[in-house]
Amino acid sequence: MAVNSLQEYWNNRYSIEGMIWGEHPCLAAKRSVNIFMKSNSKELLVPGCGYGRNSLYLALQGFRVFGVDISDEAIMIADKIAAPRRLSLQYKCQDVLKEKIDNKFDGILSINMLHLYDKSDADIISEIYCSLLNENGVLVLTSMSVNDPDYGKGKKVANNIYESKKGRPIHYFTQTSMQELIERYFTVITIGEIKEYENHGGKEHYHNMLYVEAKKK
Question: What is the DSSP-derived secondary structure letter of residue 87?
């Protein structure tokens, strides 16, 4: 998907729906705290941070957090939420795939970002994640599974990629395809499926997500 199309899609959604997934952190973000603490992580990057519900949660746990997102609408919401709090939390509107991030981090939390890209771009992003981590840095990520109820819905764009919402193709991963992608740059610590609860669009539902914890090689 072209960068301007991706940015336009998310800007439209955030401008209309605001805090789409509510104010509470997702299950994967809460899980990630354990491995980030065990690995003595201090500085965390949250790419695709949206309006910051997971970034804020990590900052409240005592981490120094830098969140980036392609949507300037999302970043405006995130800044507004963070402004009254005295936390080590910064945001920037930035495209991880196209714009270089100069800092290095102890950990990365990537929630539902890789599935927005085809196999080629997902591989590039994985390599970028590796380059942004300090030695022994930790990556925690989630991405849509082929076992998700939405798999196969909409227009088929490519193998395991379907466009159920115009302007937002989703790349559904098998556990094997995800492991092959991540293991090029990381040692996988754990990989499996989790169910993430969501309530938006007037409907409560769950998504089957692949959950990965990995360490930089």
Answer: -
